[in-house]
Write a structure and sequence with these properties.
By secondary structure, the protein is α/β, with parallel strands linked by helices. The protein contains 8 helices and 7 strands, in the order βαβαβαβαβαβαααβ. α3 runs parallel beside α4 and α4 runs parallel beside α5. The longest helix is centred in the middle third of the chain and has 29 residues. It is globular, with a radius of gyration of 17 Å. The N and C termini lie far apart (40 Å). The model has no long low-confidence stretch (mean pLDDT 95).
């Protein structure tokens, strides 16, 4: 293990899951780099973590843009430190009937949820294989394993991301790089869920909604696993969720 500071990158550091993952790694002592398309929106989270005494950095990056992703990894590796953990957490959960799914919408969802994961995973692999260590984590969803009505575009992208993660795990595991895929099979407690889920309060009252901070603990746990007992796929849901 290098004696340099450990660095984690959260690609898709949104206001809920991404922010919670960032907090977990920052509080575990990582220099935590957070990227989203509009990086200025990360400032409140950076200020929160900095006030706690942690080293948190924010970046603007369109994860669908190959040049921007390459530049982000190069900047972090050059100016901050060696990446030990990379988390891909971009969603693109947009329900729409197959009848109203234009080719443009389909491609945009695929770019966000699958192609961006490829770019992030490839760049992570490029730096980690040089050192023969690291962890790459992908956020999945129910749609990763089951296509539902009006989720054709999203499910196809998430299935693709899961297949990418499987292939990467088989290729990179023998090189001491842990690749894992986290399936979140439930509603996560976000503002959108609070505003739009008709049973939100009923579910929340009985621990039927995933709390981002509790979910994020799983990501840190995956990174900390000994390599003789690595998990590839972690399937997360509340006790009350049907499956």
């Amino acid at each position: 293990m290098s004696d340099k500071p450990q660095v984690a990158l959260v690609m898709g550091a949104g206001d809920a899951i991404g922010a919670a993952i960032s907090r977990q790694f920052a509080r575990a002592g990582f220099i935590t780099c957070m990227a989203r398309r509009n990086g200025d929106q990360l400032q409140p989270l950076i200020e929160e973590l900095t006030a706690e005494g942690h080293d948190a950095r924010g970046f603007s990056c369109d994860a669908r843009n190959e040049e921007q992703v390459e530049q982000l990894f190069a900047q972090i590796e050059s100016d901050i430190g060696e990446l030990e953990v990379v988390i891909f957490n971009i969603g693109a959960n947009m329900p729409m009937s197959i009848l109203s799914t234009s080719s443009r919408k389909f491609m945009k969802i695929w770019e966000m949820a699958c192609f961006a994961g490829f770019l992030t995973g490839r760049e992570a692999a490029r730096v980690m294989t040089k050192r023969k260590r690291g962890t790459i984590l992908f956020t999945g969803a129910t749609a990763s394993v089951r296509g539902g009505a009006v989720f054709g575009a999203f499910a196809s992208a998430k299935h693709g991301l899961r297949a990418l993660a499987q292939s990467m795990a088989r290729e990179l595991g023998p090189q001491n790089i842990h690749v894992a895929h986290v399936i979140i099979d439930a509603a996560v407690d976000t503002q959108w869920i609070r505003d739009n889920h008709p049973q939100y309060q009923e579910l929340a009252d009985k621990d039927g909604v995933v709390q981002p901070d509790d979910l994020a603990k799983n990501y840190l746990m995956l990174h900390q696993q000994p390599r003789n007992a690595w998990t590839f796929e972690l399937d997360v849901r509340p006790w009350a969720e049907k499956w």
